[in-house]
Amino acid sequence: MLDRDYDPKDIEQKWYAIWLEKNYFHAQEHDDSRPPYTIVIPPPNVTGVLHMGHALNNTLQDIMIRYKRMDGFNALWMPGTDHAGIATQNVVEKALAEKGISRHDLGRDAFIDEVWKWREKHGGLIISQLKRLGASCDWDRIRFTMDDGLSNAVRKVFVALYQDGLIYRSDYIVNWCPRCHSALSDLEVEHEEEDGYLWHIRYPLADGSGEVVVATTRPETMLGDTAVAVNPTDERYKAMIGKDLILPVMNRRIPIIADALVDKEFGTGAVKVTPAHDLNDYEMSLRHGLEVIVIIDESGNMNANAGPYNGLDRFECRKRLETDLQDQGFLVDKTHYRVPVGKCYRCKTTIEPYLSKQWFVKTRSLADEAVKAVQEGRTRIIPRNWEKVYYEWMNNIRDWCISRQIWWGHRIPAWYCDECEEVIVSETEPAGCSKCKSRTLRQETDVLDTWFSSGLWPFSTMGWPEHTETLKRFYPTDVLITGFDILFFWVARMMMLGLRFMNDVPFRDVYLHALVRDEQGQKMSKSKGNIVDPIVEMDKYGADAFRFALTAFAAMGRDVRISDKRIQGYRFFINKIWNAGKFVLANIQGFDPRSMALDTAKLGLAEKWILFELNKAVREARKALDEYRYNDVADILYQFTWHTFCDWYIELSKSMLNTDGAQYTRWVLHYVMKSILELLHPIIPFVTEEVWQCLPGRESESIVIASYPKERPEFVFTEDAELMSYIIEVISGVRSIRGETGISPSVMLDVVIRVPESKLQSLIGAHSVHIKDLARVAQVKFINHDGERPKKCALAVTKGLEVYVPLEGVVDIDKETERLTKQMGKVKKELEEKNKKLNNPNFVEKAKREVVEEQLKIKEGLEFELQSLQKAYSLLLG
RNA sequence: AGGCACGUAGCUCAGGGGGAGAGCACCACCUUGACGCGGUGGGGGUCCAGGGUUCAAAUCCCUGCGUGCCUACCA
Questions:
Q1: Which nucleotide is nearest, taking the CA of residue A397 and each C1'?
Q2: Which nucleotide is nearest to A267 (CA to C1')?
Q3: Is the dihedral of CA A27, A30, A35, A36 positive or negative?
Q4: I need a labelling partner for A370 at 20 to 30 A (CA). Which of A2, A324, A462, A751 fits?
């Protein structure tokens, strides 16, 4: 029996433990009887703490997995975590720093040991939080990107790409974080605009014949200038091309070169060229054979090449240099300017473009395949508008810098020979140099970008490169559900690597959901202090209410604004389900649905109607689920459960339970309640299980493995549903009169219904018990079309019926006159609009016939309503 | 600089070429035996502005304003 109130906490814990114990989430490799359905989790960082984004993402995945599991699929949800190179290293470094230890004190191996220890202790947090949410992952298969198996896959892929010539090592200007001491990929740089300056600096010609003024936002880089570039067509500078300038302060001779990249319109039209610290300049230096002078070191300090500024921080150097330039008369101007600045996505330090040797993946050919796969529809991106974004990025893709100068991660499987400088790339440590046989080899110290290993996730987690049963059965996955913010980071890379190594797309569908923001639509961040903590919400309202809220918010392609108030609103919904369950259970005591053969002919009208409505809800909910319209699923089921089942059917059933047909009412109460629980289970797994377990006639031991409701052709009671809608309208009409004229609910009323045809009259008459019951009516009388309308009555008009409520002795008739006047005004206005439309020959001629007919019908309805209201009005006064 | 969304009831948002919707909030009434975390009834909107297409536009197109996000090597 169910308790008085629903208390989520214990029930959630209880059921999750049972589900695990019963192994319901486990997918079978060796099951040919059911089709597979696969999702791989976007692996959260091991350092992660569950945030709203995770909560949304995993709720949506859990909905799909639970739905498909119930619907007869061999459902696999592959879980795991990501080692998250820089993020994790930062966290562990910070923890060590509190003890006054730096990673350099420990050395590489000891530090990595520390990270593993950290993971051992704290890495399980996010997993336990996912369990709290109710995630039905196959936990036996949990993977970590640094596991032996996955690390092996990483090395295999690296070597294969290297042998294909798709991985190369090269000098390049990379995004360098002077704080993390590592290169970053283009995607790991966040671009912001800051208030800065544009400096104009005078560079005199070496022959004393004049000068060139250059404009720059980073004056300190001039110390490494090796040229000044102008546009070849620029008349102002044409004569100077090829001449030398004297670089101020450094007193070095640098040439004036011509390059089409220079924009004549910007600044002075002359650009200083610093090949070691700017990507464009570096590329220019390659075109023109310029010298490359590095002046900033990897910590962001000036080095010996910066002459007098050696050892200064880059920003300090800027200040000193400005003073010096001014003193020496080289500074022409300094104006305010909005400067685009790149920041490290982890620590927000300003990025330094930095010349260094890095490893790259040649992406062009891989990207082409990834584009083709989507164009051919082998993978669908949902919502569709992201396809364009995907193509755009893939078509403009640049090579992917995959080396990181940190310690935590997959160490690049390359060795350098000290003797002959040969580079050996191999899955296992080579015994000696393949060229000179030397034994003195040094392994590359760099590790791989985290996304390199997560790019393999859909197949590495299934045991690749082994040809496992899991891979055979579950790859490619059915859908990837993830936030659009990692479309490039992750989805794009999985596409490229999946196609290259599995010869097939990694997923059939990619569903990209929006970001979760706060109530004002702001991105949540610690600094803003607007973080909403999922755990706190679940403590307050329970996991189910929280999940339902997220689902209801997840409209396709729109940001999710979380609101505590609405989570609370759905908490009330959970309670409503609980109470509906209580009602049903109390009224079907001792009833066993299996002991009764259902004869649909014997069902009552209300029973047929609710089964008809249930069919509709099932159909619509399934369709919405199949199309990833989560908010629609939530809405459809909310509406059906609360406003159709609870508000109407349960109320209707109350009187039926005392009649001869009570067995049928019990059967229907049980059946619909059970269906509702099953329909809702993917969204709100806990309450639904708790209530479901109390119902008799379960055909499985848990709702987790019960079958998802299907539409039933024998429940298509179209005519009965139509008749029921008349009755519902009558009840609503009477209630409305009551409410608006202020008739107390305790006063029993009589009603007179004027019906256009006698057949309908007898049909409604046969079920007038519902009207009596729900509208609190003592007597229902009928009059036909010719009959005289009763006097001094309130009137409700609906669906061609006139519902009269005699008012004499019940209420002041002024209120009803007022109400009728208002109602007539409304109807008149609508009718005018309808007439205008229907009197327009263009409309009648050009609009579709169904539309015209429909409009005509509405018009007739309105006319009827108006007439009835007018008559009632006069009868009221007379 | 380009691109993509979005501007609908007080709030949060659905909808999307033919009678303006939901939840919350608001007002009135209700100790009806599942539920006051409830029930019934009700008020409330030039669907951002302007133009165009159409018989018909909140919905499609263009322009503007506003907001948010993404991408980018303009020093």
A1: B71
A2: B75
A3: positive
A4: A462
Q: How many CA atoms lie within 13 A of A160 on its CB side?
A: 11
Question: To which residue do tokens 């790019």 refer?
Answer: A455
Amino acid (1-letter code) at residue A39: I
- Nucleotides of strand B under 7 angstroms from a protein beta carbon: 3-6, 11-15, 18-19, 22-24, 28-35, 37-42, 54-56, 67-75
Closest nucleotide to A847, Cα to C1' = B55
Percent of chain A with pLDDT over 70: 97
Query: Quick one: pLDDT band at residue A409, thresholds 50, 70, 90?
Result: very high
Whole-number distance in Å between A568 CA and B11 C1': 15
Residue-wise pLDDT tens digits, A431-473: 888 888 888 889 999 999 999 999 999 999 999 999 999 999 9
In angstroms, the Cα distances linking A657 to A338, A607, A641, A652, A665 are 75, 12, 20, 9, 7
Minimum-distance nucleotide, CA of A635 to C1': B22
A262-288 burial, b for 16+ CB within 10 Å, e for fewer? beeeebbbbbbbbbbbbebbbebbeeb
Interface confidence (ipTM) of the complex: 0.93
Q: In this structure, is the CB of residue A2 within 7 Å of any atom belonging to strand B?
A: no
Quick check: A388 CB within 7 A of strand B?
A: yes
Element (H, E) at A22: helix A8-22
How long a stretch of residues is chain A?
A: 878
- In A526-593, DSSP assigns E strands to 560-561
Handedness of CA A246, A247, A252, A253 (dihedral sign): negative
CA distance A199 to A218: 8
Residue A91 has pLDDT above 70, yes or no: yes
Q: Would you say A169 and A357 are in contact if contact means Cβ atoms under 8 Å apart?
A: yes
Which strands, in side-by-side order, build the sheet including A507-513? A380-382, A507-513, A477-483
* DSSP line for A454-501: HTTHHHHTTTTTS--HHHHHHPSEEEEEEEGGGIIIIIIHHHHHHHHH
pLDDT tens digits, one per residue of A347-392:
888 888 888 888 999 999 999 999 999 989 899 998 888 888 888 8
Q: Is the CB of A858 under 7 A from strand B?
A: yes
In the predicted structure, residue A523 carries a pLDDT above the cut 70: no
Torsion angle of the four alpha carbons A542, A514, A175, A226, in this order, in degrees rounded to the nearest 10 = -150
Instruction: Assess contact for A78 and A462: CB atoms under 8 A.
Output: yes
- Scan residues 325-364 of chain A and list those with Cβ within 7 Å of strand B: 339-340
Within window 430-489 on A, which residues have Cβ closer than 7 Å to strand B? 485, 488
Whether residue A504 is predicted with pLDDT greater than 80 in this model: the reply is yes
Tens digits of residue pLDDT in A99-123: 888 888 888 999 999 999 999 888 8
Task: Answer whether A767's CB lies under 8 Å from A723's CB.
Answer: yes
Report the pLDDT value the prediction gives residue A878, as an integer from 0 to 100: 67
Residue among A394, A341, A338 at smallest CA distance from A365: A394
A190 or A563: which carries more pLDDT confidence?
Answer: A190
Q: Is the pLDDT of residue A659 over 90?
A: no
How far does the CA of A520 sit from the C1' of B52, in Å?
35
Phi-psi region at A590: left, alpha or beta (left = phi > 0; alpha = psi -120 to 50): left
- Which residues in 398-417 of chain A line strand B, with CB less than 7 A from it? none
Cα(A521)–Cα(A562) distance, integer angstroms: 9
Q: Give bridge partners of residue A480 from the DSSP assignment.
A: A510
CA-based R_g, chain A, Å: 37
d(CA A305, CA A369): 45
In A34-188, which residue ranges form alpha helices assigned H by DSSP? 52-70, 85-98, 103-106, 108-122, 125-133, 148-163
